[in-house]
């Protein structure tokens, strides 16, 4: 080949290569420069997900700044099955995840109401109501036009419906009726030993589970797939959190295996910093389907999502609007394997600000945790000693403006274990979940007599110094027509010892709890005036407390008609000493005493003191209660009634309990008969201190506790803490000072 021919070939080859190069450059230019923005947008659109980031919930503190409920940072596991691939690949990923859980001792969420090992049986009796109803709803969805599902789930559905009916009957039976008694007998529970093997077999087939997989491993996998199906079929509204509070060892094991669709993310969990105040602190949980779907739903109307965590009871629910933060929105970019490539906050189109979550506000309550501890400890120690028939008790400590300093129901429970022990607590015959302080209705007994006394004094029907003769039983002077037929109620001392109190004025009649004295005043007053004054002191009315309460009743013709009972004149006499249909809560009793001894200013009972910003730098709200109304009580008349309580607290039957206190105490006992005369009476006790310048009032009730005097020791325990802690309180940090 000559030199010229070789050069021509080189030129041709070079030209072809050059042409190909320029063509390649042109294509790259077209793709990256001209069409680059389009393809980048398509790639971003395809791999970017918008996720909601929850806000940290605010803390709950006592009046001295002691944290009662806080948060702890932790990690949770969620599942994204959309990137897990085929059914077989999905099952393999979940099987590997479950194996890591077993090795690391991590508990995962599985609410399928079937035992975890063969022989498989239903556990619908121990399932929560929400989980039981979700199971029934899913079975109904899957069984629609599918006879094999209907057959497989038939026994479970029937059992679930039995348990639903049983739980409703139990709830109805446990409710306090309008007369303060249990509504009905508790029914017998259904049998819960029903085989779930047909359902498990059907689920194995439905979820494509390898038939050779061991039964227990298959059951675990079915449980996770059941949870995912609940959400995908609309049988559950809450988001599925596979596992919560996982540690670094678990996180490392998951990362090492590179399990697609398994996402580990930071979160917070509620921490109860005290084992006290369980009945009023409450708890948080997911929004129930019934709450979401109810007419005029609070959650729908206020921008919540169906799977949000909210306050369910107590102060967590009452102060939801303050404690709840503002959630953020994050853009998460994933690669083809479902791994996170980048995370950025979405920008608010109106403000241009990043949509990061904003923590909730902190709520400072009126509760004094040291008084709360003292009250609960004293009730637990002293109430069982009152009587071998005692069942439950409650106590309330309140200040002169309605601020609740302590509120307790006995027996109580540990809020941190309430969810795991819920079924045991529910079955306990002493009903530890029941808040007797705000929901328990009790006759006030002789603690009502101060109302009768004030009413008669203010209406000019007696004087502080008038003396009335106790003859042992109530009767008119000879020659006057007695209006109550053969009904001649006796004084307690006459009934028990055959004696009398002789001539009594207001103060000594209260000290001695002389029934005849107050029967006489009631006879002069009449039921209308008596009821009017009882209402002024808040009996039969809402106290205004932020947590659920019963309002109770005041005996009278209207109440009898409401209860389908007959009213007759003699009931006036029992009403005057706090018996009959007069029923009130311990909270109402405490607030009535505070209203009395503060001079007649009737404040709403409340738990909210202050709302502070998430960093404690600003006061968002300062609760400054105003009186609901004011009762006109002259100073002379008020002192006459208070003096009777002074005599009992300093010289009478309960004075021994208060003699070592640095202040003088005014007190009144009550014994409220319930049921037959052979049934142990309820014990009722109220007091206030200091006598000269009252700061707090206390009300205590013990079911079948016999005499109210026995409860004076509980009051003394609380008062010793209150008046012994002066100058030692830990103050809430001032504004502009960070405490974190």
From TrEMBL:
Transmembrane regions listed in the UniProt entry: 12-31
Subcellular location: Cell membrane; Membrane
Keywords, alphabetical: Cell membrane, Cell shape, Cell wall biogenesis/degradation, Membrane, Peptidoglycan synthesis, Transmembrane, Transmembrane helix
Location, primary (coarse class): membrane
Domain Penicillin-binding protein transpeptidase intervals: 395-712
Family as reported in the entry's similarity comment: Belongs to the transpeptidase family.
Name this protein carries in UniProt: Penicillin-binding protein
Species name: Pseudoflavonifractor hominis
């Amino acid at each position: 080949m000559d030199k010229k021919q070789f050069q021509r070939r080189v030129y041709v080859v070079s030209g072809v290569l050059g042409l190909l190069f320029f063509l390649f450059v042109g294509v790259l230019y077209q793709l990256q420069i001209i069409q680059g923005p389009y393809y980048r947008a398509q790639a971003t659109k395809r791999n970017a997900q918008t996720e909601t980031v929850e806000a940290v919930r605010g803390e709950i503190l006592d009046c001295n700044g002691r944290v009662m409920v806080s948060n702890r940072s932790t990690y949770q596991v969620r599942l994204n099955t959309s990137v897990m691939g085929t059914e077989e690949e999905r099952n393999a990923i979940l099987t590997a995840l479950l194996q890591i859980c077993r090795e690391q001792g991590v508990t995962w969420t599985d609410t399928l109401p079937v035992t975890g090992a063969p022989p498989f049986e239903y556990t619908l009796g121990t399932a929560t109501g929400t989980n039981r109803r979700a199971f029934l709803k899913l079975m109904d969805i899957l069984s629609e036009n599918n006879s094999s599902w209907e057959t497989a789930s038939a026994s479970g559905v029937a059992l679930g419906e039995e348990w639903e009916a049983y739980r409703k009957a139990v709830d109805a039976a446990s409710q306090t009726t309008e007369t303060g008694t249990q509504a009905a007998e508790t029914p017998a529970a259904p049998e819960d030993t029903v085989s779930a093997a047909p359902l498990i077999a059907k689920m194995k087939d439905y979820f494509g589970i390898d038939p050779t997989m061991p039964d227990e491993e298959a059951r675990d996998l079915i449980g996770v797939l059941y949870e995912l199906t609940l959400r995908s079929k609309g049988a559950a509204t809450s988001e599925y959190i596979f596992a919560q509070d996982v540690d670094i060892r678990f996180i490392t094991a998951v990362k090492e295996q590179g399990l697609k669709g398994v996402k580990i993310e930071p979160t917070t969990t509620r921490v109860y910093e005290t084992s006290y105040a369980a009945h009023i602190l409450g708890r948080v949980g997911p929004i129930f389907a019934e709450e979401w779907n109810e007419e005029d739903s609070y959650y729908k109307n206020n921008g919540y999502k169906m799977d949000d965590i909210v306050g369910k009871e107590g102060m967590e629910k009452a102060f939801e609007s303050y404690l709840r933060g503002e959630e953020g929105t994050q853009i998460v970019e994933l690669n083809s394997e479902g791994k996170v490539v980048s995370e950025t906050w979405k920008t608010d189109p109106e403000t241009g600000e990043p949509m990061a979550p904003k923590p909730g506000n902190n709520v400072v309550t009126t509760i004094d945790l040291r008084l709360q501890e003292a009250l609960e400890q004293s009730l637990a120690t002293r109430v069982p000693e009152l009587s071998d028939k005692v069942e439950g008790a409650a106590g309330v400590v309140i200040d002169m403006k309605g601020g609740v300093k302590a509120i307790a129901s006995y027996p109580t429970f540990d809020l941190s274990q309430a969810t795991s022990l819920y079924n045991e607590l529910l079955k306990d015959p002493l009903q530890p979940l029941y808040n007797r302080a705000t929901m328990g209705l009790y006759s006030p007994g002789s603690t009502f007599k101060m109302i009768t006394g004030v009413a008669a004094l203010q209406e000019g029907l007696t004087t502080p110094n008038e003396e009335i003769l106790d003859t042992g039983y109530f009767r008119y002077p000879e020659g006057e027509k007695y209006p109550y037929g053969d009904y001649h109620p006796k004084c307690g001392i006459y009934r028990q010892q055959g004696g009398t109190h002789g001539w009594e004025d207001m103060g000594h009649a209260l000290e001695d709890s002389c029934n005849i004295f107050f029967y006489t005043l009631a006879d002069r007053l009449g039921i209308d005036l008596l009821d009017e004054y009882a209402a002024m002191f808040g009996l039969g009315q809402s106290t205004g407390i932020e947590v659920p309460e019963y309002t109770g009743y005041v005996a009278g013709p209207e109440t009898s008609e409401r209860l389908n009972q007959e009213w007759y004149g003699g009931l006036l006499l029992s009403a005057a000493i706090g018996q009959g249909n007069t029923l009130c809560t311990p909270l109402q009793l405490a607030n009535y005493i505070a209203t009395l001894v503060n001079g007649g200013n009737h404040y709403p009972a409340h738990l909210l003191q202050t709302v502070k910003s998430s960093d404690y730098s600003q006061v968002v709200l300062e609760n400054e209660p105003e009186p609901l109304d004011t009762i006109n009580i002259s100073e002379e008349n008020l002192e006459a009634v208070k003096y009777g309580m002074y005599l009992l607290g300093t010289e009478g039957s309960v004075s021994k309990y208060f003699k070592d206190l640095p202040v003088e105490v005014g007190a009144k006992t009550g014994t409220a008969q319930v049921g037959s005369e052979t049934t142990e009476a309820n014990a009722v006790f109220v007091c206030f201190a200091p006598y000269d310048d009252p700061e707090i009032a206390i009300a205590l009730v013990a079911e079948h506790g016999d005499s109210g005097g026995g409860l004076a020791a509980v009051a003394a325990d609380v008062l010793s803490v209150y008046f012994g802690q002066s100058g030692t309180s830990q103050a809430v940090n001032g504004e502009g000072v960070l405490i974190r």
